[in-house]
Amino acid sequence: MLARATKELFYTVAGLVMALNGHIYRTFRAGSAVRKSSVRLHLGPGQKAYLPGWTNIDANMFTSKCDIWLDLRNPLPFPDNSVDAIYSHHMIENLPDIEAYFRDTFRVLKPGGIYRAAGPNGDMAIAKFIENDHDWFGDWPDKYDSIGGRFANFIFCRNEHLTILTESYLTELAQRAGFKHVKRLLPVMETGHTHLFEDCLAHEHERDYDAPHTLVLELEKAI
Ligand SMILES: C[S@@+](CC[C@H](N)C(=O)[O-])C[C@H]1O[C@@H](n2cnc3c(N)ncnc32)[C@H](O)[C@@H]1O
């Protein structure tokens, strides 16, 4: 895992090129892409979760597999009301302004479009910390014996994560962005929209179904 400072340097240096790449995509390719077929965006696929048939977008040009190289801190290079579905799994906790990002996902979705957003489950981590459930927390990225160290590991991931994702917080941000229907789901193999997200579920991992490590919300842009 890269140190925070190295990552910030990468985003500073590569940020301008990614912004230019977004501008070029918006100007020359987005229009025909949305006219040709339905568009589903997978934001932050990383190394192993590339989804064929989706437009996979990531900033990591070294190890991720993606179709468009972009910094998701910038607006998505798609027209308003042009995208059918959006999926992200363990990505939004890396963003400095989730509210602005939710506003932008709302902007690009078509009315009736769905955003499935998943990330580290802050509600469950707090409950497990209070229960002193040492074993619920993992050893990654750092090894700690104390419950506090393990809790910090989960929440901040060696300062990779910029926020704590809880259901009420994400629901408030989503509703402020304009989403009317926010549904919380169990983490794996469940969706209210199988026709859109069936192929995403195979990439979701959860070792404790009753006390999920991942919080999943499905946000709908009302018609
Ligand atoms: C923890 S990985 C998750 C990978 C995969 N979705 C999964 O759940 O296994 C987070 C991914 O989000 C991407 N990411 C984080 N911040 C980003 C940003 N500002 N712009 C684009 N991609 C970003 C990272 O490059 C990385 O590939």
Key terms:
223 residues, alpha/beta, Rossmann fold, seven-stranded mixed sheet, 7 helices, 37% helix, 18% strand, globular, binds S-adenosylmethionine
Can you characterise this structure?
By secondary structure, the chain is α/β, with parallel strands linked by helices. It has a single domain, classed as Rossmann fold. The protein is 37% helix and 18% strand. It has a 7-stranded mixed beta sheet with strand order 3-2-1-4-5-7-6, sandwiched between helices. It binds S-adenosylmethionine. The site of S-adenosylmethionine has 16 residues, from loops.
Oligomer: single chain
Q: How are the strands ordered across the major sheet?
A: 3-2-1-4-5-7-6
Largest sheet: 7 strands, mixed
Quickly count the domains.
1
Mean pLDDT: 94
Helix content: 25-40%
Number of strands: 7
Q: Beta-strand level of the residues, as a percent range?
A: 15-25%
SSE order, as H and E?
Answer: HHEEEEHEHHHEHE
CATH first level: which class? Answer: Alpha Beta
In short:
Helices cover 37% and strands 18% of the residues. It is an alpha/beta fold and 223 residues long.
Secondary-structure blueprint:
Elements: H1 4-28, H2 30-36, E1 40-43, E2 55-58, E3 68-69, E4 83-89, H3 98-108, E5 109-120, H4 122-131, H5 147-156, H6 167-177, E6 181-185, H7 194-201, E7 214-220
Parallel strand pairs: 1-2, 1-4, 2-3, 4-5
Antiparallel strand pairs: 5-7, 6-7
The structure holds S-adenosylmethionine.
